[in-house]
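In response to reviewer comment 3 from the previous cycle, which asked for concrete evidence that the modeling workflow produces usable outputs, we include below a single protein chain processed end to end. The sequence was submitted unchanged, and the resulting structure tokens are shown without manual editing.
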Amino acid sequence: MRRWFRTLQAQLFLWAVLPLTFALLAVAFTGVYAHQRAMRDFVAQRDLALARLAARIVEDGLAHGTIGSDGSGLAAWLPLFLSGGDWPARLFVMDERAHVLFHSDPALTGADFSGIADWTAALSGAEGAVLSRREEGLVLSAFSPVRGARWVVVVEEPVEGLLGPILRLPALAPVVAGGAGLLSLLVFTFGWTTIVRPLRALARAAEQVSWGDDSAIARPVGGVQEVQDLHRALAEMVGRLRGYEAGIRDYLGAVTSGQEAERARLARELHDGPVQDLIALAQQVEMAHRLIARGEMESLRAQLEELHRAIHRVVEELRRLIAALRPPYIEDLGLLPALEMLVRQAAETTSAKVQLVTEGEIRRCHSDVELAAYRIAQEALNNALRHARARTVTVQVQQDAEHLILAVADDGVGFVLPPRPDLLTAQGRFGLVGMQERATRLGGRLMVETAPGQGTRVTAILPLSLGRAAS
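The workflow returned the following structure tokens.
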């Protein structure tokens, strides 16, 4: 129960329901109080009518001479008002000195009520009703004068007796209001300490994290369970972001190292291949000049033929190096011919079955998209042939109205895919990270499906255009 009370749901419930409950209580108390007033007015009118009736009866008795000036004979004319039954009201007749001439309780006949200050209006000959507080509680008194004598007939009854239990609730209003106010203060204080203040602390911690202070998010903020869950999620997010940053740094470092290694390899191949061939060509040209000077035409002809073959070898070597730098077929023929050439070259260098499968018409798309798709296919194909020990590798290409969908699937050994990409860089596996970067940079996405012993499927979904159509 305590755990539920500390949840945001409970807090919102209390903050929303309590004010409504208090409002309904206020309306209820207002209605009960109005009904109480109406009930008192009704009883006052009823008792006043009863006092008038008793006053007229007494006037008739006086007129017939059966009631003496000292009040004798009143009991004979007012027998219905003698005490008895469940009626809580009392009826009595007083003279001008507040001396009781008749009382419905015979024990009070002859009593002196002059000490009661509330009889001022009644003894002055007025008619009406009044609420007065006595030792026994709040009393409603209705009075009517007797014409022909300086007497007054009074009907009184306790207010508590004429109101039911529910109509006594307004007396509890201050207690209920005080309790409600105290409860509201407690709820507000608890909500402030468990929701508002923790959220502010969490906002400050997030702001400090944006300035590079990761330790701020590690400090506990407390609060309801939802705030703690949010704090935990933010801390995990910060950890992942820092992991991504480290992964990107590792990836960029690996890319930079790879670029430098590729430049060194290219320089070495250029030096050991085309440069040496060009030096040899220069020597052969020098030799041809000597043959011309000596007039040895047959030897010159043979020398020129050898020079021609050497030039062709240099050209082929340069084409191979250029093709390694950028696919030669993409710009002129498009993605599909370039993939066909990539698959053909891969099939020539391995015993595995490598095939290209297309579904539907494959149209030209943006050049950056075609290049990214080619590089993703190239990397995935190399991974399948070098590391997966696959027997079959399939490159699938299809298009829908807005996307180019490229998939490379193999039946190799597979692997355990880490939950986060930055863990790949920590393991030195930069190929998948590079493919993902190429896809996301263009607004696409990369999906990897793999498991140990179940092969690997890499799917890239790329937009067909990047703001403008490619011819």
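The chain has 14 helices and ten strands. We consider this sufficient to address the reviewer's concern, and the full set will be provided in the supplementary archive.
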